[in-house]
Design brief:
Shape: elongated
Radius of gyration: 32 Å
Strand content: 5-15%
Number of strands: 7
CATH superfamily of the largest domain: Ribonuclease H-like superfamily/Ribonuclease H
Largest sheet: 5 strands, mixed
Distance between the termini: 113 Å
Number of helices: 19
CATH class of the largest domain: Alpha Beta
């Protein structure tokens, strides 16, 4: 009977839901978890660092939509001290178990006795009918009391919600008013994470929606919302205002938001300050000395590519053949396996080394490349080919202006949206000959081939004179 009575009491109207088995310092666990996410760690690594299961870290990340909850947004800052922390509650529990009184505990913690008395009265464990104090249960009670029950603004204002949803997800219509559903477009990129399939919609961005509302409703102050509130309504579970599938109407189509630090830290771990373009010799910048090259890839359909090398002084161009590697398209792709499309790091390194080592040593001074993962083996390339590799600053292709201009000329032969893997070595050699035989205004209407031939003859004559 006693067991039945307790069950009845626990399930009665207005009964306090059981905290279950609260983990140690759950609020601090969340705080430390999001602090690790803020510096760019994955959800699994952040969970392991906190001391919880990786699957729990993934669950926290998805439930919050990829961004820290508002009450933990300042997780990287230390507590203000105004409220009792979990460490304070642990100290209270230990002192209480040792038989210390309220005033003694308050003196040791540097708090007012009324604070300790109120803490023991409000947050004690009452499941067994007594006032036994446990730090984990007290922390759960405090977190529950501090939780804001305020509903989302979009959930409270149906007119505002309908307006936001229409500008985000309304259908595209033809001039005659008929709906145009558009084609079914699915995400195929493997490097972009889980995303919703694309759909045609009006697709205003949250910021466009938020900024336009005061223009369309100048006298109605209830029709105001921030773009961050719209993002939270889309991504955060429990906000309940906008459906998660409406993320397909956003430009990125992401199923989760990406923390800014993680996006900044993605890739490019091989770029160090000493190999940035700012450290490139001055003679490369003024084009006075030949032998300094710029390189890049031109990308085509079905992950095909061609490598390009351009000498800065003579504008002489070399095209690199990057064929598919063995096993491409023959089976499921191996996660974290080698890039088999032909323009991975190993394939590019081999192609450059095989080509550039045919040149005299004085024409192998440096190579400037964009910050792409295809050059992650640059250290080995420097050993194999004897050429120093430098990298442009992020998002600064203009720092390799000669190569960018040449790639534009090459698009005459290799248009965008075509499969570049159909071109063999003979095709690339023929195009390179044609490009190097064009007279250039910057060379005094000489051709790049003539300019390079003059450089080689001068180098050979200088070497003979020095030997003699």
């Amino acid at each position: 009977m006693g067991v039945r009575r307790r069950r009845s009491d626990r399930s009665g109207r207005g009964a306090l839901r059981s905290p279950g088995r609260p983990s140690v310092a759950r609020r601090e666990d969340h705080r430390r978890f999001w602090a690790a996410i803020a510096v760019g760690r994955s959800s699994e690594d952040a969970a392991v660092g906190v001391g919880v299961a990786p699957v729990l870290g993934r669950r926290w990340f998805r439930q919050a939509g990829g961004m820290p909850p508002s009450h933990l947004a300042a997780s990287s800052r230390p507590p203000s001290g105004r409220h009792l922390s979990f460490a304070d509650r642990e100290e209270i529990a230990i002192r209480r178990a040792q038989g210390h009184g309220v005033r003694e505990i308050a003196r040791r913690l540097g708090r007012a006795p009324s604070t300790i008395s109120r803490e023991l009265r409000r947050n004690a464990a009452t499941r067994g009918g007594g006032l036994e104090y446990r730090a984990t249960t007290a922390q759960w009670h405090a977190d529950r009391s501090a939780r804001r029950p305020k509903p989302a603004k979009l959930a409270r204002n149906a007119v505002l919600q309908r307006c936001v949803q229409d500008r985000l997800a309304d259908r595209i219509t033809a001039p005659n008013g008929t709906a145009v559903p558009g084609p079914a477009v699915t995400w195929k990129g493997r490097r972009h994470g889980p995303r919703q399939d694309r759909r045609w919609a009006t697709a205003w961005s949250p910021e466009q929606i938020a900024r336009r509302l005061p223009v369309d409703f100048p006298d109605d102050t209830t029709m105001r919302i921030s773009h961050e509130a719209i993002y939270q309504a889309l991504y955060v579970q429990g906000r309940g205002a906008l459906r998660r599938e409406l993320t397909a109407c956003l430009r990125t189509g992401r199923a989760l938001r990406v923390p800014r630090a993680r996006a900044r830290g993605r890739g490019k771990p091989f770029i160090t300050p000493e190999i940035l373009i700012s450290q490139r010799p001055a003679q490369a910048a003024d084009r006075a000395v030949p032998g300094h090259w710029e390189g890049d890839l031109i990308i085509g359909l079905s992950r095909s590519a061609i490598g390009t090398l351009v000498e800065r002084t003579t504008r002489f161009t070399i095209l690199l053949h990057l064929p598919r590697m063995a096993g491409y398209g023959s089976g499921p792709r191996v996660k974290n396996g080698p890039a088999l499309a032909g323009h991975g790091a190993e394939a590019v390194r081999v192609a450059i080394a095989r080509t550039i080592t045919t040149l005299p040593e004085q024409l192998r001074q440096s190579l400037t490349w964009d910050q792409g993962a295809e050059m992650s083996q640059h250290a080995r390339l420097r050993i194999d080919a004897g050429v120093q590799v430098y990298f442009c600053d992020p998002h600064s292709p203009w720092q390799r202006g000669t190569n960018e201009n040449t790639n534009g000329l090459l698009r005459q032969y290799f248009p965008k949206g075509t499969d570049l893997s159909v071109h063999g070595t003979d095709d690339l050699a023929a195009v390179a000959v044609a490009l190097n035989a064009r007279p250039r205004k910057t060379l005094g209407w000489r051709t790049p081939a003539e300019a390079l031939d003059e450089v080689l003859r001068f180098a050979q004559a200088s070497g003979v004179a020095a030997t003699a």
